[in-house]
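## Example pair
The file below holds two records. Each record gives the amino-acid sequence first, followed by its structure token line.
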Amino acid sequence: MSKKLQGKVALVVGGASGIGRAIAECFHAEGAAVALADRNRDACEELAILLGASATHHRVDVADESSVQSMVNEVVRQHQAIDVLVNCAGILDETPFLEISAETFDRMISINLRGAFLVGRYVAEQMVKQKSGRIINISSQLALKGGVGLSHYCSAKAGLLGLTKSMARELAPYGILTNAIAPGPILTPMLEGLSKEWVANKEAELPLGRFGTAEEVAPTALMLAASPDGDLYLGQTLGPNSGDVM
């Protein structure tokens, strides 16, 4: 049986850990040549070595436009194409609304929303030349329901859903399919930014009774990335979220 992404090039931004890493490993197992981009150079290089010769690693600061542009150019130079983009870079911290500074809010937007825009913008230019591509933006179920102490995070992730829908409409004529995944609470290093009380309360309210794992999110990304599996999905938000949003 042929692999679902055989011959494809997948750029996974934020691919050194958590959901991004699980998606990168999943795509690699399905035959893709994976370009890993992350701010953590060492972790990125370590994973690329594990994945083997077809994988490349690239340092990027998604808040810096010149860094994003250089990274995308480097990926295209090394792989000659970008067939799939996964926008997974992000940060998370818990701060009450009345205590969030403008600086903290701006940093969250800069990385979790503006960063996805910048990467999507430069990758889309390459995909337009190819007349094909898949873009998958990783949002959060909190974009749909909000969260205590997370108004800055929820704002950025909700903005990402709006960006996804607009990208989907504008890029579809070029053969580019843009969708989002809004995972529920997932056991990743990002949880370190949340209090133990927040985590315990969230787990107790989940209908499934547990947090998900990054490996349980990756198959959703694979479905959107592959053909014919994801061919009819456009501007959609898929939610592997333990029943947190129904």
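Second record, same layout:
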Amino acid sequence: MRAERFRWLLAALLLGWGIAPAQSAAPAPFILLDAGKMAAYKAAYIKGQPVEVAQVKAVLRAADKALRQRAYFITGKSQVPPTGDKHDYMSQAPYSWPDPTRPDGLPYINKDGLRNPEAAAFTDEDNLKDLFRDVKTLGVAYYFTGNEQYAACAAKQLRGFFLEPATRMNPHLNFAQAIPGVSTGRCYGMIESRDMVEIPDALALFSGSKSIDARLVGGLKDWFRQFTTWATTSKLGLEEGRTRNNHSTFYDAQVIDFALFTGDETLARKVLETMTLARLAVQLAPDGSQPLELARTRPWNYVTMNMLGWVRVARLAEKLKVDLWNYTLPDGRGLHPAIAWFKPYLLRQKQMDRPDVVPVSNHAVLTLYHLASPHYADLEAEKVFALNPDFARVPWAL
């Protein structure tokens, strides 16, 4: 009784001093992740099922490592954006190289698929990706354990990267993928933010946490709303939306995801119905191949990457009651044949006509198969996974 009276007195004093206690955020819905599959996996983990226990333990080890990581932010970079504001994201196009025929190397030229080590000196992309990875890992760890220290660490990282005035990133990518001697920023920079869709689902993983409070979630929604406005109204954002290859796929995935996160279902539906569906005829051939990606110097990497983007869009379409998984054009083009196209390669019955100029692992394509196989019985997924016994099938993969 005394403790209860003390809590009421403390709350009254805080309000009297103008200090409102932090309010827990309302439970956030999953957008890309499947709530039912996550719950089933958690139930198996609690029962001590060996596979689930082993995978969750691996996540907890990674989350414990994330607890010890430095704060991620972009304002500590050595380069200065054209605006003079280090809160602006910067990167250099990875495939641009000095022109050997010119004394100063300018303007840089493109060597598709070959990364220029110079680009690694721009650290904003690394900070962005590290943030996505760690917040997602901490979210999964919290979901299975309820350990508040994971949520507290994620909250600190999210506030620092997106909200704190001293370190926040401005909500645009005007200076991403610059090419020396050509441009200070290009539309293609949005490919570097493609995994930002991990953040809304990470917040759902933290449902019930005291650390991920209403103020933090509200601030993040404001930031994502501003970023979405930039993506759909700025010159570079509109250019990215008009691209034809994998860039357009991930553009749609981001805009639809962020629109759903911020409560703008009208925008999400508009992008899906007026932009996404038209891309099927542009990107996919009737036999399921992806001519635009196969023309690249890293064809296997890009066909896999693009189709993972399509899987994300298909999952987002479910939220809008649109079945993109089985949507088919009159000539047969659609996601089903595009994903089935991978089957003979994964069953080791065929090899690519041209190998990638840089070797690539099969982890991404196995993730693609894992996500798509529940929708298509003819993929022979179990045979594929039997050939790759070390691949872990987990419901938090995106």
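Notes on the second record: The domain at 243-398 is CATH 1.50.10.100 (Glycosyltransferase). The longest strand covers residues 175-178.
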